[in-house]
Amino acid sequence: MFVFGNVVGAVAWLADMVFNLLLLVILLNAVLSWFRLDSSNPPLQLLERISNVVCNPIRRLFPTMASGIDFAPMIAMVALMFLQRIIVPSLQGIAARMG
């Protein structure tokens, strides 16, 4: 049973890394949106696509534009941090109980 616990522990670590990466991508994309950069730049397009996967559902549900400021990245980051604080410790606890 300890092998399954190790697998769950590895999934918890991977989930933590994914959450941190998403938070970093959204923050970086939000900061870069303040500057006029070449939109045909592939790394910037990748940041935009990844950020939009998380932010577009929020933009559809709530009108997040207020006087030209898009609050969807901030809402997405708070939601991701909330989920990270629930999911990762839960998986770590399950892994610890399994041995």
Strand tally: 2
Overall spatial form:
elongated
N-to-C order of helices and strands: HHEEH
- What portion of residues is helical? over 70%
Structural class: mainly alpha
- Beta percentage is under 5%
Mean pLDDT: 92
What is the count of DSSP helices, taking H or I runs of 4+ residues? Answer: 3
Major β-sheet annotation: 2 strands, antiparallel
Q: Which spans of ≥5 residues are poorly predicted at pLDDT below 50?
A: none
Q: Reading side by side through the largest sheet, how are the strands ordered? A: 1-2
Our measurement of the CA-to-CA distance between the termini, rounded to an integer number of angstroms, reads 7 Å
C-alpha Rg, in Å? 17 Å
How would you characterize this protein structure?
There is one protein chain. The protein is mostly helical and 99 residues long. Strands 1-2 form a two-stranded antiparallel sheet. A hairpin with a 2-residue loop joins strand 1 and strand 2. The longest helix has 31 residues.
Q: Secondary-structure blueprint of this entry?
A:
Blueprint (H helix, E strand, L loop, with lengths): L1 H31 L9 H20 L3 E2 L2 E2 L1 H27 L1
Antiparallel strand pairs: 1-2
Helix pairs in contact: 1-2, 1-3, 2-3
